[in-house]
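Z., the sequence and structure:
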Amino acid sequence: MIRVGLISNPRSQRNKRNMPAMREVVRAHPDVLHAELDHVEGTAPVLRDFARREVGVVAVSGGDGTVQKVMTELLNGGGFGQQPRLAVLPSGMTNLIAADVGLRGNPARSLARLCAAAAASAPTGEALPRPVISMQRIPTEAPVHGMFLGTAAFYRGIKLARDRVHPLGAEQTLAAAMGLGLALLRLVAGRGDGNALMRAERMAIGIGGGKAVTRDYLLFMATTLQRLILGVMPFWGAGDGGLRMTTVDFPPQRFCRAILPILRGRPREWMEAGGYRSGRASECRLTLNCPIVFDGEFFTPEPETPVVLRADREIAFWRC
């Protein structure tokens, strides 16, 4: 038997509908510890309590931002002698992490399945060890740990989705796609140079121990996920390390012809010379002024201070 501790965010999109059913599952499994958080800052004391009570699986019912907070607290010293496994329920507005390493189906039914698997004399399930992105904005700051980030056009597309599409009532996954799609259409229509959404972002990017290269970029994205939503996976190329990165120079060359190959991660021969690059590394250093979107949360870089991304930590996810 493995003890389950559940952290839920009642304010997350799907939890607003599913919390009564989730509470019923918890009542049916008295050994499960359940913490409903009013805000994510309460994560640290909850995890310390879980560690004292020998929780072996931490289940998270919330969006990507809630999962990020739990991963950050666990890897920065959550009080566990041995790191617990993480089980992610798709209960938020964005569920990129859950789509790759999370439990499948309705959150309440997924939780019931998890509780039954953990209570078995021989617990069943699939262990998924995955590297995470550790982002450090200043050397004295504890890193934030997550699995997908982007900046430049990615940031502006997500902000557009939140400002203009969410008020229409769209789910976050759809809203993000609509926002990014609108931004792409504006560029394809030839209004990229004058459009605030699709403009050059001056960045210095250094890979590994190499010298940073400064140029104008349209887009930067990085992930440690192996699967994204809607069949999109805009990463390709070789390299050492678990950090997958894609950049697009500004202005983008032959952009209309590049969109589908980018989204599918299947570049054409001409694309690298045209400013479309993707590969793997264990570390990346970014010096930029544009905000970064990391698992749906916005982070502002410190001026003239490189943001360091590493993929040298790992979380063991559990799926059943």
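Residues 166-175, 189-194 have pLDDT under 50 and may be disordered. Residues 201 and 217 are 5 Å apart (CA to CA).

Let me know what you think.
H.
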